[in-house]
Structures are given as C-alpha cells and as structure tokens.
Design goal:
This is Glycerophosphoryl diester phosphodiesterase family protein. The protein is an all-alpha fold and 316 residues long. It has 12 helices and no strands. It has one domain.
Length: 316
C-alpha cells in the first residue's frame, strides 16, 4: 500500500497515558463517523436485546405470581430471538464495524484526513471481507490453542479421581486450574494478535500473514498491551454504567403511562442504551491503531524514516 509518509515531528516514544489520551482524542474528533458505524452494525442487536428483556420484565405485573401452567409468553420468544440476533451481529457484524472504525482512525493518524459518514460505510465493503475472515481465523486459532490445556487438565482430573476415588475434589480442583490457565492463555493470545486489523489496512496483508505480523510487533510488549487494554476496559466499564442508570428511569416513566403503552418507555430507553453502548465498541479498534503506530515507531523507527524522507524532499 502506497501512502504519503507520516508528517515530521512525530512524538516518540509515546507514553502509556499518551496512548490512552490519543484514543479518546480520536474518538472525540471522529465521533459522528465512528458512532454511525457502530450504531448501525452493533446498535441494532443491542437494541433488540434490551428491548426484549424490558418487554419480558413488564409482561408480568408487579406483585402477581406467574402461572406455572400458562403457555409461553411471546416476550420470552422475543428474548430468545434477541439473543440469537445479538450473537450473530457480534459474530459477523462486529468485524465489519471494526474494519471501518480502524480505517477512520488510521486515516486520521496517517494523513490527518477526516472521513465522512457515507465514506465510513463504504469502507465496510472495501475492507470488511478480509477483516472478517482474519478475525474468524484468529478466534479459531485461539480456541484451538485453548483446547490443548483443557484436554490435558481434563485427563489429569479423570486420572486423579480414579486414583484417589474422590471425584468431586479432584475434578473441582482441576477445573479451577483449567479456568485460570485458560484465562491466562486467552489474554496472552488476544494481546499478541491485537494488532491484526491495523496490519491488514496499513500493510495490505490479510489472513495468516497479518496474525504473524501482529505477533512480531507485540513481541516484548505483552504487559504494555495488557495494561492498556485493562485500563481502557475499566474506563469503558465506568462509562457503560450510564445505560444501567438509564434503565432506572423505566419505573417512573411507566407510572405515567397507561398499561397498554408501557412499551413506549421501553422503546425509548432501549434506543438510548444502544446509542451509549455503541460508543464502547469503538474504543478498542482505535487503541489498536494507536498502538500499532507506537510499536512501529519504537521497534522500527518508522517515524524517523518518514522525517528523513521529509528532510530529503525539502533539501532536494
């Protein structure tokens, strides 16, 4: 991919807090493009999820015990369908949104270029396919790597239970160790493969080469990447408490509405929750872009090469 070099005067090395500050600066500057993409691809599933849960909660009046012999309510079917829609949207639409948000952030950092909402949707068709297949390959690889220690711990638990005869204690202890080992391995693999999408868009190398390139860039940077993801996750968790507070407005609103129109309050609150939650999905792809450039600056001196090229052109 042929691009104009980065502008001279890049700051290196980027500090830990500087990376997080850069993420939220990009999110603030490119808010509407990023929010439109995340709301369109991920907000719909979130909306149906919260709307169906709200309908299920308001289907049974307060203080009335449910009838165990009553037929299944339509709201329960709606809850099940919302789970399916939410899962499918996260599995197949989340990579498409990540592709567009990553390219919007990359253009902002690479060229200082603004991306409109219409162009942001066009980026989905341009890069969504390769990003989707790479993300599927990434998760298949991670699941395959997790299966090995799980099978080892399972065999160890069965063997230990057969020797001691105390199956409950043996399988319980082994299950705790298996969960801890799986979480550690999953965190390690996720951090090492975190930069795959920026690699696809910047270096035009999808699929397996993108995963290998991400593994190379994050070498000796696991704890830095893990710390950034952890701090960003805590910040987003606090921000995600706002939709939880919005849900508390349901009872006051339903108090002033007739019984047959309580779905209106549920509709409005679900739309507001989906709008707030959509912004949460935008931050990790932006962090991946900022961290990708930081790793290339630190490991490969990419900004110094760009500055040298800039000086050569000025003196030519």
């Amino acid at each position: 991919m042929t691009e104009k070099p980065l502008p001279a005067g890049s700051v290196r090395p980027w500090k830990f807090t500087g990376i997080l500050d850069g993420v939220f600066r990009i999110l603030r500057v490119r808010l509407w493009s990023v929010w439109a993409i995340c709301a369109a691809f991920l907000g719909v599933g979130t909306f149906f999820f919260h709307f169906s849960l709200g309908q299920a909660e308001t289907a049974q009046p307060m203080g009335v015990a449910p009838d165990p012999y009553a037929p299944p309510e339509t709201s329960l079917v709606l809850v099940f369908l919302s789970f399916v829609i939410y899962g499918l949207s996260f599995l197949f639409l989340h990579p498409l949104a990540v592709a567009s948000v990553t390219e919007v952030a990359r253009r902002h950092l690479r060229r200082g270029e603004a991306t409109g909402i219409r162009e942001a949707f066009r980026l989905v068709g341009r890069y969504g396919g390769s990003v989707l297949m790479t993300m599927i390959l990434k998760w298949v690889l991670m699941i395959a790597c997790l299966a090995v220690p799980v099978l080892i711990f399972l065999f160890s638990g069965l063997l230990l239970g057969a020797v001691t005869g105390d199956w409950a204690s043996a399988m319980g202890g082994v299950a705790v160790l298996a969960v801890l080992c799986s979480l550690g391995l999953l965190s390690f693999l996720y951090c090492r493969l975190f930069l795959a999408v920026p690699v696809i868009l910047e270096e035009n190398t999808p699929y397996w080469p993108a995963l290998k390139r991400s593994w190379q860039l994050t070498r000796s940077a696991f704890w830095r990447t893990f710390g950034l993801l952890l701090v960003l996750g805590l910040i987003l968790y606090v921000f995600n408490l706002v939709p939880s507070l919005l849900q508390m407005l349901r009872l006051p609103l339903e108090f002033f509405l007739p019984p047959g129109t309580r779905w209106i309050s549920n509709l409005l609150l679900s739309a507001m929750v989906a709008a707030f939650t959509s912004l949460v999905y935008a931050a990790p792809p932006i962090l991946a872009v900022v961290l990708y450039y930081e790793r290339r600056f630190r490991k490969e001196g990419w900004d110094l090469a760009a500055e040298a090229e800039h000086l050569r052109r000025e003196t030519a």
